DNA sequence: CTGAAAGCGCTAACAC
DNA sequence: GTGTTAGCGCTTTCAG
């Protein structure tokens, strides 16, 4: 009923081993036989059994993504990016919604982690300890959070607020309110730091911290009243959802935006342009966060995988690799080579001969990242203090085209390799209709 | 390194077979041994190898969901519902984004279908033929589309527009514009049908069809101008995104909503309340669409599965089942029993003794569906003309609490069982600020 | 109720 | 280059 590799082998007049090789490692088979086997396989409609393959190779060809809330446009966009990238690389992706529950996250990762080659955790709210624990079981890449030796892709939080505040300052605003996100939000902490730096640098600018709020529309609505009462002429919100809430509340109270109060968001979700006035906000390359995360995962995390046979081999290869051989890519290639190829029809047949160089920036619109970002362990970079806390990042005063960091995505899986530099993506302020010049006379609640 | 079932067996002093049973079919093992094995397994941190299990059982414990666009709030919400439900049943779910490309859909389903127990296709744009083809390979459940014998969950499209038009009519509107969705949208076709019925029933109501538009914000913006030119005092949009676009365009042109024009959307996505005026719209139980789809999948689609050994057994069981024995649930239970239980730690240990009754409405807020919706093949229902085209659905004139259909979710997998009735979910108009009484004098472009 | 044995479909040594 | 031989870890007959 279901056609098996044996069937193909028999029909092609070769041994199962040869059939297997012809499909999975074509370069090991004589051209004539190879093509014949491939043809027969096609004719018979052969579909390799993934479970059987996984059982022996230890690789699944799957990834997983865990987000706090799929309905949040921010995460939806990241998910889309992850999807797209994974698909072109031949990976399928499990998506899990943690329902904003920090306790659910580790559970989800543990469950899914058992059946994937790696996991992307987007804005995880779980503790550092949980992250450490999980990282032992499955290759992890963090998005929008940083943690010790784990690979991660983040945005330049500090630079975003810098741009926003600079913009507001140029419009004459001197009293700016900040409506923060959740107290335990990693990115919010970075933005606060950035805020402190900018306001230091700018004369006569005063930032009023209105405190932490839920990072959703309702949070913004609540914050709206505080904004009105603060006497600020401009407000910067933790994210667009919050900004939208503020906007809504302000307008409901009869305050005009931007005539009375200017509002700036963060993230640039689609809804930012659905409202009027359209929201001035900090554009974050949402989809790219996802894409980079996948690249990172495929680049290094996949190298080690608890997979019985494969595991031992990889370990041996890595050892040999470290012992001198500057870079015999062929070796690691045949080991780390995961699924690839856009066509799902015969992924195996399409398996490239070229070594595994998953991301060389080909698809990126700006050439920020080094083209050899995927190659790891080239001596020099080893042993640095990459495991530091990551406080060294934001020289927030500097500006100009901040490069999205290169760094060697090494393997933090306990193979003794150094911790990777996080991939940091640039953000950019996009000015729309919700910000304008400071009102000539101060606006306050008393105005109405 | 990794603890295997053999290890557990050895440590517990039993054979691998017994260990396996103790964990996967506890009822087959003597209480004493059973508990001992379970304890040992826990202590050793035993984690069953899913690949090995899948290889022999043919079941994966995974589902997949394919949507046209993850960033569309409609699909995000459905995805969330699918997620949640699948998780409580112990299933992990692959999510794929078809990027609004009908050609990509079958490819994704084919790829993922090979490694899941069933697939949920949300608003698939692919052809009927593609659906037929895929349905042969993997159990399918459709959301927001109907097709022959495939199980599906849809909303009462016709009733939604009926409510909307009735509302508008009550406000005095007599000239109502309809801004449709994509020409090949199944749901849009249903809404048009409903529209025709209602306007027949209502005196003096004239519906102006403004044609098909892309179901996104930009589509609505484009439609906005047509609305203004149509002379209609109210407009009903294919969905909220389009309604939002219309709203935006109308306001940009100086028309006031609802004073000059009333706007009604469909779906009630979160953004509907982010704008001002808040959108009057037809609330669709988005998350529930997803939940029901999963229930349907688990209820019947899982019964048959090409899985070597399991397949034959299931087939035999089904045959025996049909031959009289009204309901020997024990049999099918041990066969169809998929993963379940909320705890991921020891899903197996939690395997219920009770027969497989995945959804009995326990989690539903309204008891619309029958509690025995999961039980299939009880003679009577067999052989009906369930395979009809689905044109029989909308007696659009009727109203009142339309029940969300019960029907026996039979297996359309060619086992000779009848086609299932689609699960139809009720929708409800929610009146917000974007609709109001008809203007005393007609509004047209000339007004400004 | 329990154990021994036989694979699920595939890949990876190891010889030839 | 190719075939032969072993299993990967688990479930499931089939005897006892």
TrEMBL record, chains A, B:
Residue ranges with Basic and acidic residues bias: 354-379
Region (Disordered): 354-448
Gene Ontology MF terms: DNA-binding transcription factor activity; transcription cis-regulatory region binding
InterPro entries per UniProt: HTH_LacI (IPR000843), LacI/GalR-like_sensor (IPR046335), Lambda_DNA-bd_dom_sf (IPR010982), Peripla_BP_I (IPR028082)
Keywords for the protein's UniProt record, in alphabetical order: DNA-binding, Transcription, Transcription regulation
CDD domains listed in its UniProt record: HTH_LacI, PBP1_LacI_sugar_binding-like
SUPFAM superfamilies: lambda repressor-like DNA-binding domains, Periplasmic binding protein-like I
Highest taxon in the source lineage: Bacteria
Ranges of residues in domain HTH lacI-type: 3-57
Entries under PANTHER family matching the protein: LACI-RELATED TRANSCRIPTIONAL REPRESSOR, TRANSCRIPTIONAL REGULATORY PROTEIN
Name of the protein this chain belongs to: Transcriptional regulator, LacI family
Organism (species): Cellulomonas fimi (strain ATCC 484 / DSM 20113 / JCM 1341 / CCUG 24087 / LMG 16345 / NBRC 15513 / NCIMB 8980 / NCTC 7547 / NRS-133)
Species lineage: Bacteria, Bacillati, Actinomycetota, Actinomycetes, Micrococcales
């Amino acid at each position: 009923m279901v056609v098996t590799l044996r069937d193909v082998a028999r029909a092609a007049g070769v041994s199962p081993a040869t059939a297997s090789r012809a499909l999975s490692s074509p370069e090991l088979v004589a051209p004539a036989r190879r093509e014949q086997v491939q043809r027969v396989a096609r004719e018979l409609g052969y579909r390799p059994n993934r479970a059987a393959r996984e059982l022996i190779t230890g690789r699944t060809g799957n990834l997983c993504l865990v987000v706090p809330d799929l309905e949040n446009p921010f995460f939806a966009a990241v998910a889309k990016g992850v999807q797209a990238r994974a698909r072109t690389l031949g990976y399928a992706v499990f998506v899990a919604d943690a329902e904003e529950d920090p306790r659910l996250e580790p559970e989800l990762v543990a469950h899914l982690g058992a059946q994937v080659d790696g996991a992307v955790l987007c804005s995880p709210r779980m503790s550092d300890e949980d992250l450490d624990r999980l990282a032992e079981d499955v290759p992890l890449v963090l998005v929008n959070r940083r943690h010790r030796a784990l690979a991660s892709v983040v945005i330049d939080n500090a630079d975003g607020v810098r741009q926003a505040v600079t913009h507001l300052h140029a419009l004459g605003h001197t009293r700016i309110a900040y409506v923060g996100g959740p107290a335990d939000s990693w990115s919010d902490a970075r933005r606060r730091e950035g805020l402190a730096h900018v306001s230091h640098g700018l004369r006569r600018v005063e930032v009023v911290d209105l405190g932490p709020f839920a990072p959703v529309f309702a949070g913004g609505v609540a914050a709206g009243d505080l904004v009105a009462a603060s006497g600020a002429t401009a407000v910067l919100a933790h994210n667009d959802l919050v900004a939208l809430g503020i906007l809504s509340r302000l307008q409901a109270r009869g305050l005009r935006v931007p005539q009375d109060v200017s509002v700036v968001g963060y993230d640039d979700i689609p809804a930012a342009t659905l409202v009027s006035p359209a929201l001035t906000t900090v554009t974050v390359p949402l989809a790219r966060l996802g894409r980079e995360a996948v690249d990172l995962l495929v680049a290094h995390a996949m190298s080690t995988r608890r997979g019985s046979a494969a595991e031992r081999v990889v370990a041996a290869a890595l050892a040999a690799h470290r012992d001198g051989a500057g870079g015999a890519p062929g070796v690691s290639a045949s080991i780390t080579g995961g699924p690839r190829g856009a066509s799902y029809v015969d992924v195996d047949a399409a398996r490239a001969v070229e070594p595994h160089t998953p991301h060389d920036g080909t698809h990126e619109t700006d050439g920020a990242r080094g083209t050899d970002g995927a190659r790891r362990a080239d001596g020099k970079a080893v042993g640095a203090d990459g495991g530091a806390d990551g406080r060294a990042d934001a020289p927030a005063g500097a500006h100009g085209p901040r490069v999205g960091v290169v760094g060697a995505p090494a393997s933090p899986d306990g193979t003794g390799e150094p911790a990777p530099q996080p991939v940091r993506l640039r953000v950019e302020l996009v000015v729309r209709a919700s910000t304008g010049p400071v009102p000539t006379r101060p606006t306050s609640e008393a105005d109405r």
